[in-house]
Amino acid sequence: MVIFAASALMYLLLVWAGGAIEWIEIVIAVLFGGLISIMAKRWNPNITLRHSWLNPVRLLRFVVYLFGPFLMALIHANLDVAMRVITGKINPGIVRIPTGLASDGALTLLANSITLTPGTLTVDADDESRDLYIHWINVTTETPDASDICGTFPEWARRIAE
Q1: How many domains does the chain have?
Q2: Which of 11, 24, 108, 147 has the fewest C-beta atoms lying within 10 Å of its C-beta?
Q3: What gap in Å lies between CA 47 and CA 40, rounded to an integer?
Q4: Please, are residues 130 and 107 in contact by the beta-carbon 8 Å criterion?
């Protein structure tokens, strides 16, 4: 039901020109939403959608994370990468960091946060060990701790998504 509603609403938002929406567009949105829902269920028959992301506490934690620790890390990383570009002091490499995260949502949030921060890029995620492989612009150690690369991101991902 969530996939249906999201698909239909997204279609209506894309075709909306600011005025009234024609009835044919609503029919197309319902058909489009139904088709997407059927395809999603067939492609992922064992997946169950959780509504925990609709929890207001989690949404508030996400907003606090976005405008707090993530924004500060983003500013710091931009300045760090700019200085490394100017000075040429880089030591790039791929490192593995253990995350300790159990849910796919938390792992995805962490991986995307790392990728959005300049100087780091999530290259791969190990499904079994839940480790991330990160391309890092300044490798200081071969076995870094998660806090060396992404600070408190794993703790925030755990609070938000698990």
Answers
A1: 2
A2: 24
A3: 9
A4: yes
Query: Model pTM greater than 0.85?
Result: no
Contact 89, 133 (CB under 8 A): no
Can you spell out the DSSP letters for 34-70? HHHHHHHHHH-TT-----GGG-HHHHHHHHHHIIIII
Considering the domain architecture, whether residues 38 and 61 belong to the same structural domain is answered as no
The whole-number pLDDT of residue 153 equals 94
Residue the block writes with tokens 């997204």: 10
What does the pLDDT look like over 68-122, one tens digit per residue?
Answer: 999 999 999 999 999 999 999 999 999 999 998 988 889 999 999 999 999 999 9
Phi, psi values for residue 101, rounded to 5°? -90, 140
What does DSSP say about strands 131-136 and 93-98: parallel, antiparallel, or unpaired?
A: antiparallel
Q: Are residues 31 and 103 in the same domain?
A: no
Other beta carbons less than 10 A from residue 28's beta carbon: 15
Check pLDDT > 90 for residue 132.
yes
Give me the residue label for tokens 């408190």.
152
Q: Are 150 and 142 in contact (CB under 8 A)?
A: no
In a domain, 48, yes or no: no
Query: By C-alpha distance, which of 138, 104, 102 is closest to 120?
Result: 138
